[in-house]
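Hi there. Long-time user, first ticket. I'm pasting a complex I've been working with (about 666 residues overall). I'd like to know whether the download I got is complete or cut off, because the file seemed smaller than I expected. Thanks.
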Amino acid sequence: MPSDDDISAEERLIARYFGPLATAPGAFGLHDDAAVVTPPPDCDLVLTTDGVIAGVHFFPDDPPGDVARKVLRMNLSDLAAKGARPIGFLMSIALPPGIGESWIAAFAAGLGEDAAHYGCPLLGGDTDHTPVSLSVSITAFGAVPHGAMIRRSTAKVGDSVVVTGSIGDAALGVLLRKDASLVKNWRLSNGERDHLLGRYLLPRPRNALAAAVLHHASAAMDVSDGLAGDLAKLCRASGVAAEIDVARVPLSAAARAALAADPALIETILTGGDDYEIVLALAPERFAAFRAEADKAGVAATEIGRIAKGQGAARFIQDGKPLAFARPSYSHF
Amino acid sequence: MPSDDDISAEERLIARYFGPLATAPGAFGLHDDAAVVTPPPDCDLVLTTDGVIAGVHFFPDDPPGDVARKVLRMNLSDLAAKGARPIGFLMSIALPPGIGESWIAAFAAGLGEDAAHYGCPLLGGDTDHTPVSLSVSITAFGAVPHGAMIRRSTAKVGDSVVVTGSIGDAALGVLLRKDASLVKNWRLSNGERDHLLGRYLLPRPRNALAAAVLHHASAAMDVSDGLAGDLAKLCRASGVAAEIDVARVPLSAAARAALAADPALIETILTGGDDYEIVLALAPERFAAFRAEADKAGVAATEIGRIAKGQGAARFIQDGKPLAFARPSYSHF
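Hi, the file is complete. Here it is re-exported in full:
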């Protein structure tokens, strides 16, 4: 066997912490330049990439395992919204000085748990040092039957607009994370506070609904930059408009409590980022079946409005009047 | 049409500069959450990821178009070494404050030229702001016939060791870049200086040889972290040793001139990074055919040694004695 002296620090680190995650045969235990995927017969591969940078997308003191799970789940959420079954992922990680092996061990442990849970194994990657900010970029792969990927651009006039889970929790969570005194202003219980903080820290991607999206949606996308802005993107891509009844947008008990204390938070709720829910358009007669499949997966599915004729606008109607947002779409950019 | 006010700065930037590069139908003009690839029949997909960080892998004042081409070519080099034909790529870019649209325009122009030249279109990506260092990460996809990817771990005792192009130019180029006075010490002509600087700035991936690698190699990998270290990786993965005749390692005229002026540079040449050549093991009787295909592509192919029994060592023999390297493998990490 080669002595440890023959192997670089990078190889040692990869072998110890990430090698055990590379469970797919095509990952070659991370001992090759590249990975191999044999595509399932008659399937297309769905490809997506998303990443996080310390201080931009997460707080530097977030638990390393949760950082890993967040960035993988951000990508899994894109696959879910496209109706795709996860196949695996590649990861690039850039580590600043001062990141110790214990951080990496905890990061890899969280990543491995989620990779196993979502059936999305590590296929390969790239490790580097960076002068300042830790960053992680993941490219995830999924499979759909040939030609069946659910797109943004195919919503039809008359479709129902449906959203999964609840909206606005993560955007309220990040406000709480920055200013703990808001717990009091919003009159939140400890449980409500923890719910909002947790929804920011760790997305809950709706991969359990991918098959239902694939069967029923005319168009779909994941809600990551705010419901208002993301729905407007879907409308622009489809050449339609949407009319949303704000009162029907699903909110958690915690978000309802915060909103009752400060009605102006409706803008944060509808335009803040990091929901990682799915917004979809589907023929109205399909909603009951979609909701039944969502129920089985333990995820709420709520009809919030309609697709109408128009050119890209998503109107959010409250008390009979359209809301005007100062900043319709959240952008980290 | 939606007004510009409805569209975020990120969407505008992506649409203007990267949208025109997304020429594959499955890229949906970058207007979706994900891209689709329909795998060629009976093929495996080969996946690789590699990235650059300003100040680590390139100089912040490098021309933006060359930065783009470098990071794409780093990934193309991995595909070439695996015998894979490029299909496309995803790119994540993180931009620090102060990067203007003119930088991005030049970056996108360089990227587009190479994507067209190598037949490897942009399929999707992710754009973010970062507090400090610009970084770019690419995940590239290629195709090989099912089961045919050329691996690191399959070199056979008795194989010839062959390397493409010339070795050490980029490692000498980066020394010149950091200390211009070396031009005089090494007694280089202007042409020789420019050759070494250019080889560092812009890899020349050997994708023209991918089919020849696929047909003839027992094992292969791209040389990106130094010939000595990378060949040792191939030997460890294959459970073999390699005996290399240093006198046969192909050097450019510029590298020969530098080495004549300073014989200690042999360590830089053999262990420095950024060669982006291919090192391969093949049955000796296949070398003539491989070299003929390389000749047709205008790339040198040189037999530099043999695969022997052993456990992972790559011995570089000069004047009858094995060289001992202070640092066998270059690692940015």
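A couple of notes from our side: The radius of gyration of chain B is 21 Å. Chain B has two domains: 10-145, 160-322.
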